[in-house]
Amino acid sequence: QLPLNAIKHYSDAHSKPPDLHFQYGTAGFRTLGNTLDSVIFRVGILAGLRSKRLDGKTIGVMVTASHNPEQDNGVKLVDPRGEMLEASWEAHATLLANASSTDAFLEALTALVKSTKIDLSKPARVVYARDTRPSGPALISALEDGFKALGVEARDAGITTTPILHYLVKAINTKGTNESYGEDSEDGYFTKLSTSFKKLVAGKARPDPLIIDCANGVGAHAGAKLIEYLGDSFPLVLENTTTSTPGTLNESCGADFVKTMQRLPPTLANLMKPGQRACSLDGDADRLMYYYLDERGQFRMLDGDKIAALVAAFIVELVKLAGLDSEIKVGVVQTAYANGASTKYLAERLPVKCVPTGVKHLHHAAEHYDVGVYFEANGHGTVLFSKSTQDKLKSHEPSTPAQSTALNHLINLTQLINQTVGDALSDMLLVEVVLAHKSYSGVEWNSLYADLPNRLVKVVVGDRNGFKTEDAERRLVSPPGLQTKIDDLVRRYEGGRSFVRPSGTEDVVRVYAEAVVKSQADGGSPYFIEVTETYKFAVELAFRVAGLVYDEAGGDPSRRPK
Ligand code: G16
After folding, report:
1. Which listed residue, 215, 283, 305, 406, has the most CB atoms within 10 A of its CB?
2. Which residues are catalytic?
């Protein structure tokens, strides 16, 4: 039996705002933090039920809004193997979050228990954490009320990064088994990462200090701990670490700022010398963007696509050196945001698949390869080694010392990489390992291929749900007719490509465009755009498509994107 009286008692203190609709989107619920009290309370109960459904396995709950502005917050659920909540439960989450009253909520819970055949006598176990957002403490107490209402055995992981929470979930659920993922503590996580990193860079030249822009978020805490574990092996300099000053989180810094604005966070401008590398994390440290200044002091971005190219090529090389290339196939997963040049570069070497935005889609597609490398252009990604690949690596008998070395490197990579989800710190160490092995600076890495000029624009519309896509989000099916207009526009640009999709984490429609040159026939543009010559046409195309989107959505002409 559900403890209906207890749930009712707590639920009355966390009533749903009457006029709001909540949706479990790309990365869970995400909206203004001060509207999320009832949602988070209900998620506490849902997480407990999910655990009961899975025979008492531990479920993760992360309270964060990642790259979103500071006033936003959100919550995502983590399944027992450390991956995102199974898609069919997203609908349950949305349904529970929108029940209009306590009675409606109790009814929805009872129906859920019945339809998903939950055995209520099973234990409910949850581990939870939050990022540094000011709305976090109040939302955590709503979550804890949810746990109390259902009688969940809850473990508080405190303020930590999203990928550390994913690590903990997997470590807890595999503890004592032959698939043990590591000690179920932050210490276990940092020890695992730093030990494998040190083995992988043993004998290599010590890299120059790396500047890390922590986005004024929880990555600053994790970065400081990582420094202790890495010791002398790799000097890190943390910047944008003010986690308690209101208004600073992700503000003019962080991975999303760098990717969208394609420039340095202003606070780093005076710190970087030509040739020096740096990287940015996002608000919960699951995304990573690299960059450097070239010899003329020009900003050069090394995004998720560049990370995928670097890492995939390295793993392919090691697999070959280990003598396993006929048995282990490496594949790459991208989204429509992947730069066209990266897709071309990778597809000439490896199988490449395109899926809709969202780590959950990339992760599942990557599981189909022996080694699946997935990165979103925004810097969110990881590498998955299938169970049979990991077994093969452990049992393979190398026939030469060179094979043995490559095999050991691969085994150490399986330890260094957080295979549960994108992890900025683990990915950063991975990048540094590859750069050390290849003796690459940012320049050589960047020259693997040349990015097509591109631009991402956000358009604020009345109702983003009116925008529906197909073909891995590359084409719009609704509003009707808009895709044809976009196609007409794109045809006027050489190397032109553009797509439009509703964001699943912010209340905007996103427009992406690539373009090299504009066709002569198109004439002048009504847009005056102050950017470097190279990017001019991509920016122009992006803003023209954004204009179409804006007109279609019936926006106020004075706020039309320009
Ligand atoms: C989340 C997802 C990512 C996605 C991003 C943007 O990232 O985990 O997979 O790329 O949102 O999604 P959308 O374009 O739908 O807003 P994060 O780092 O914010 O959790």
Report:
1. 215
2. 66
Q: Whose CA is nearest to atom 9 of ligand 1?
A: 358
Q: Name the residue with tokens 């490896």.
A: 350
Q: What is the 3-state secondary structure (H, E, C) of 277-344?
A: EEEEECCCCCEEEEEEECCCCCEEEECHHHHHHHHHHHHHHHHHHCCCCCCCCEEEEECCCCCHHHHH
Owner of token pair 């707590």? 10
**Tens of pLDDT along 369-428?**
999 999 999 999 999 999 999 999 999 999 999 999 999 999 999 999 999 999 999 999
Q: 469 CB less than 6 Å from ligand 1?
A: no
State the first-to-last Cα distance of the chain, in angstroms, to the nearest integer.
Answer: 58
* Ranges for all domains in the chain classified under CATH 3.30.310.50: 454-559
Q: Kindly give the distance from the C-alpha atom of residue 142 to the centroid of ligand 1, in angstroms, as a whole number.
A: 24
Q: How far is the CA of 28 from the centre of ligand 1 (A)?
A: 10
pLDDT score, position 553: 82
C-alpha of residue 515 to centroid of ligand 1, in Å: 24
Residue minimizing CA distance to atom 10 of ligand 1: 358
Domain with CATH 3.40.120.10 in the chain: 4-159, 186-299
Which among 56, 105, 62 has a CA at the least distance from the CA of 85? 62
Q: Which of 31, 83, 505, 511 has most ligand 1 atoms within 8 Å of CB, for mutation?
A: 505
Question: For 4-159, which CATH superfamily applies?
Answer: Alpha-D-Glucose-1,6-Bisphosphate, subunit A, domain 3 (3.40.120.10)
What is the distance in A from the centroid of ligand 1 to the CA of 190?
Answer: 25
Q: Would you say the CB of residue 505 lies under 6 angstroms from ligand 1?
A: yes
Q: Complex ipTM above 0.90? A: yes
| pTM for the model | 0.94
What are the tens digits of pLDDT across the range 60-79? 999 999 999 999 999 999 99
Report pLDDT for 320.
Answer: 98
pLDDT band at 529 (very low <50, low <70, confident <90, very high): very low
Q: Whose CA is nearest to atom 1 of ligand 1?
A: 27
% residues pLDDT > 90 (the chain): 90
CATH fold of 454-559, please?
Answer: TATA-Binding Protein (3.30.310)
Top-tier CATH class for 186-299: alpha beta
CATH topology of domain 304-446: Alpha-D-Glucose-1,6-Bisphosphate; Chain A, domain 3 (3.40.120)
Helix, strand, coil distribution of the chain in percent, nearest 5: 45, 20, 40
